Amino acid sequence: TIARVAGDGPLIGIYPSLPVSVDSYNSSLYYKGYQNWVEQFGASTVLLPHEGNVDWYFERINAFFIPGGPTRPLPAFVKGMIQRAIKANAEGDYFPVWGTCLGFQWIVEAIGGSSA
Question: Quick one: residue 91, left, alpha or beta (phi over 0 = left, psi -120 to 50 = alpha)?
Answer without folding.
Answer: alpha
